[in-house]
Amino acid sequence: MAQKTDLVDFVWEGLDKARKKTKGEVSAANELSAKIQLNRQGIRVTKIRKKPQPLFAARKKAITTGDIAIFSRQLATMLAAGVPLVQSFDIVGRGHENPSMQEMLLSIKADIEGGDTLAEALNKKPVYFDELFCNLVEAGEQAGVLETLLDKIATYKEKTESMKKKIKKALTYPIAVIAVAVIVTAILLIFVVPIFEDLFKSFGADLPAFTRMVIDMSKWIQEWWWVIILILVGGFYVFDYFKKRSRKFNHFLDRMLLSVPIVGDIINKSAIARFSRTLSTMSAAGVPLVDALQSVSGACGNIIYAEAVLKMREDVATGQRLQFAMQQTGIWPHMVQQMVAIGEESGSIDDLLGKVADFYEEEVDNMVDNLSSLMEPMIMVVLGILVGGLIVAMYLPIFKLGSAI
After folding, report:
1. Are residues 184 and 136 part of one domain?
2. pLDDT of 16-46, one tens digit each?
3. Rounded to the nearest 5°, which phi and psi values hold at 23?
4. CA distance 104 to 135
């Protein structure tokens, strides 16, 4: 297979079919390819050159799932408005603020111009377009309803991203505050406590047990700080290593998270919402149930639910009803099972699963808001114990000395 050539941007001037002067930009492998591409559009090129690079080129940023969600909505809107697919990619790609995203979209556009279908072009970017995305696009192309399916994909991506952002927002604040509290405590132990220790030595009196404990802790941290850093870095590396390579570790971690009070409920309902939303979207696209469940398993976000969905897929493939297969796993709420049963009977499983997804997404939103409200007083208690405890330990000998005088 020939190695793919990087695309180069060219600026050109020429005459259109009406012999009027026109100009613009085009991406191609080389100048000859750019001229051929323009000739196909009925433009006679009079001048063409490489597009000059700006003095301070835009810094490339990583492509995020949020970028993919926005792209899905923009492409769906363009196609619904009747804009051709290649031109839609050109407009969306050149107008994107992220140079990395712009480069990827123009690369997909070049693949489509080379004869690939949209699904085939997206399949070449598995890091950014998962199996679910590509399967839905392929179903839309085969049924001739690509713009409708892209609209459903965009809605799915937007709702999924919205849920992720709310959960991250709820966790970011307490983690940041606790991190600051730990840093402040370390500064007090390393730099402030030794000053008080020198002061207490001049008293020549016995120190309270609490103060003695804090001073001993300060000495230990000053002597073994490198061990603490080594343990933290090593622990993070070991955690990351096993999380990426060990299925048993991920199984244990996900099962443990599901059992954590409050947080476990949020993860449970989030997984159910993602399952329902994904299966609803794929059912609406006309994807066969057995194929849809294969993609849905990877969208649950939790290995316990992913394994349950794969078990359901095996049962459905042997002829069982989806509702009965869900019942056998023992992890799906009764309400979800009944909604699926009604959907199977009425032939509107996509609509009913959409309603289930709406319900559980709202539940997750409310629980995240409640978690945020609950975390604030708990954080204040942690801060009071850490910082307040150190201050009390340092001032106890002074209070003792004052009472003796």
Report:
1. no
2. 877 888 888 877 778 888 888 888 878 888 8
3. -155, 165
4. 20
On whether the CB atoms of residues 355 and 336 are closer than 8 A, the answer is no
1 found inside a domain: no
Q: Which residues of 237-275 are buried (b: 16+ CB within 10 A; e: fewer)?
A: eeeeeeeeeeeeebeebbeeebeeeebeebbbbbbbbbb
What residues have CB less than 8 Å from 261, skipping those under 6 apart? none
Beta bridge partners of 13: 23, 47
Are residues 223 and 250 located together in one domain of the fold?
Answer: yes
Is the pTM value of this prediction over 0.90?
no
Instruction: Note the pLDDT tens digit of each residue in 206-231.
Output: 778 888 888 888 888 888 888 888 99
Number of H-type helices and E-type strands within the chain: 17, 3
Give the distance from CA 129 to its chain's centroid.
13
What does the pLDDT look like over 330-366, one tens digit per residue? 889 999 999 999 988 888 888 899 899 889 988 888 8
The reply to whether 60 falls in a domain is no
Count: domains in the chain? 3
Rounded to 10 degrees, what is the CA torsion of 109, 113, 116, 121?
-10
Q: Would you say residue 194 lies in a domain?
A: yes
> Among 255, 232, 251, which Cα is nearest to 243's?
251
Range of the domain at 118: 65-158
Contact 300, 273 (CB under 8 A): no
Residues 104 and 183 occupy one common structural domain:
no
Is residue 346 in a domain? yes
| CA–CA gap between residue 47 and residue 273 (Å, rounded) | 56
